[in-house]
Amino acid sequence: MTNRVKKRKSRRSSQSTQKWGDQIRQWREAKGWSRAELIARYQKKLEGLNPDYQFSEIPSETWLARVERDESVEVSRLSIHVLCDALECTPNQLMTIMICADRNILADPNGEMTAEGELLAHTVTSLQQSDATRKVIQECLRGRQITDLHEDDFLDTLLEVIHAVKLERARLPMLCGGTTRALGGAD
Predict the structure, then answer these.
(1) How many helices (H) does the chain have, and how many strands (E)?
(2) Contacts of 133 by beta carbon, 8 Å cutoff, 6+ apart
(3) Burial category of 116 from C-beta neighbours within 10 Å (exposed 0-12, middle 13-18, buried 19 and up)
(4) Does 180 have pLDDT greater than 60?
(5) pLDDT score, position 141
(6) What's the 3-state SS for 50-111?
(7) Buried b vs exposed e over 65-77: b needs ≥16 C-beta within 10 Å?
(8) pLDDT digits (tens, 9 = 90+) for 59-68
(9) How far apart are CA 185 and CA 24, in angstroms?
(10) Using a CB cutoff of 8 Å and minimum separation of 24, what contacts does 144-148 make?
(11) Element housing 21 (H / E)
(12) What is the value of pTM for the model shown?
């Protein structure tokens, strides 16, 4: 891991996107842990992953302070996972951190895409391109923030989105298919 100091510029322009290092700091402070305590927990988690780790792989409190101020650019995906694991983050908290850190949330800790992750990525991309998706999500939120939703709300919304997109697509082939047949195209 390198510890170059540089202000991190997000590729997203969303005002609601919180800096991931600041979120780590808030969760650490909410647990009443010092930076030294979190680094010690990080070291234990790293030992569990790789008993033959190099001492140089253990970040310092200074490194963590820079991460929390969003000054450290060179933080590997695995380091973020270990940090979140050391912080006892929930799966939703880990996802929040990965999104804020501009990381692919469907990849494994080493950044590799599994078949499941790739299928989900294609599915999400397909759903995201649909007008029906936007309408269902707007209706679901109705002035609420994403953080106000519970896991069941996410699943219910996804089911509604899938249903709406399937209905939207079922109408398209009828229109396009009818036009093709009328023009003498193949059935």
Answers:
(1) 8, 0
(2) 127, 161, 164, 165
(3) exposed
(4) no
(5) 87
(6) CCCCCHHHCCCHHHHHHHHCCCECCCCHHHHHHHHHHCCCCHHHHHHHHHHCCCCCCECCCC
(7) ebbbebbbeebeb
(8) 889 989 999 9
(9) 58
(10) 145/16
(11) helix 20-30
(12) 0.61
Distance between first and last Cα of the chain: 58
pLDDT in tens, 115-142: 888 888 888 888 888 899 999 989 988 8
DSSP state of 148: G
| CATH number belonging to the domain at 20-100, selected among 1.10.357, 1.10.260, 1.25.40, 1.20.120 | 1.10.260
In the chain, list all ranges with CATH 1.10.260: 20-100
- Residues 57 and 83: beta-carbon distance below 8 Å: no
